[in-house]
Amino acid sequence: MDNNTAALLQEALTNHKSGNFAASLLQYKTILKRDVSNLMAWESLSCLLLTLERFEDCAEACRKALDIEPESFIAKHNLTFALNRLLDYGIKKWRSSEILSAVSQLIELGGAEPDYATWQLGMFKLLLGEFEYGWQMYESRLKLAEFIGNKELLTPPRWNGENFEGRTLLLHWEQGFGDTIMMLRYLEQVKSLGGKVLLFVQEQLVDIASTCPGPDYVFGHPHGSPDFNIQLPLMSLPLILNTRIDTIPSRIPYINIPAHVPNRAQILSRLSKSRRPKKGGLVWAGRPTHKLDAERSVSPELLRPLEAAEAISWFCLQRENPEIIPFSGALPLGDLLETFADTAYALSQLDMVVTVDTAIAHLAGAMGIPVRLLLAFRPDWRWLLGRDDSPWYPTLKIYRQTEPGDWPTVIQHVLEDL
User: Fold this and answer.
1) pLDDT digits over 90-106, tens only?
2) CB 265 within 8 A of CB 349
3) HSE-up of 123 (CA within 13 Å, CB side)?
4) What is the pTM of this model?
5) CATH number of the domain located at residue range(s) 264-417 in this protein
6) Alpha helices in 184-325 (DSSP H)
7) Is-contact 119 96, C-beta < 8 A?
8) Domain limits, the chain
């Protein structure tokens, strides 16, 4: 770098730091016309463009810097931030091309393996309602080392959706409780296509899964499986059964209250303390180990405005730290929800549930109980975009963040509806 360029770059950096952005922008561009390979100028320009929220231009500047120095920390950091903001912009405007472009670039930037990249893109296609290709791409999850499920069961012949009369099909769980509950809707349809249906779910879900129409045998321990001829992981059912938005099985309820509810009497006694016409449940946090829990969970104190809904007695359904209540009028109930049977019974006694995106939203929806879902700006794929209802759960209404992190506005909208 010659002395004149070095002096101009120093002046540009000074203007940038002092907030004279127009001058520094012009100076960075002047430098890069003279010396297109000036790494510091490209890095500094990307920082300025990020500040100015010119995210597409920032991404381009970052790429120029990475062409010069592939390990540039500044360029990688700024590019990741810019692409995430472009992704958010695409979600806000529901622009499919921008969303998929930003996701593709983020995956490429992270050096993701092809199967991981396909899986991630598949989830965003599902988010956009592009089910035909989304389900196919979603299958890439089965090839990942971090696949959460029963890999040892993937080896026998896979069911492809044909009639299986005279044979035994094993459907087995994967991922979280909510995913399993969501897929139980397919059991009756599967049973209509053939022979014996075995259902392997998480042990905690055996009681409620046994209330579903369809399976011949439900178990929660791998050693409890009878012999079977064909198998399928639960989350592959939408692909195998050619699910589109308008063909989602949505006959509700498909889960009922188990015959044995350990804490039935205590739950009923606690609920009887209500002195208002209606009873509502509150859930503000999901499983803390979930990788997106910080985005999907709400601080309990943010629910305080709901106290103004004078017709509703509120009951807190949080199992973790059940002693915490968001406002003085709310009553704890989570300490009695030791099993999903307890939770299903408690939900059946409520008029509605206000919850974040966690398993209780799925269970209440599967039971036909009105759900008010508090949803983060960047939602999970199953909640789609641009709508306040869900084709998966007819009694569920979605309240979406319109800006990342803005829970107060979401909760205010719930209160207005209540």
Assistant:
1) 888 777 888 888 888 88
2) no
3) 16
4) 0.87
5) 3.40.50.2000
6) 187-191, 206-209, 237-240, 264-271, 293-296
7) no
8) 3-111, 151-247, 264-417
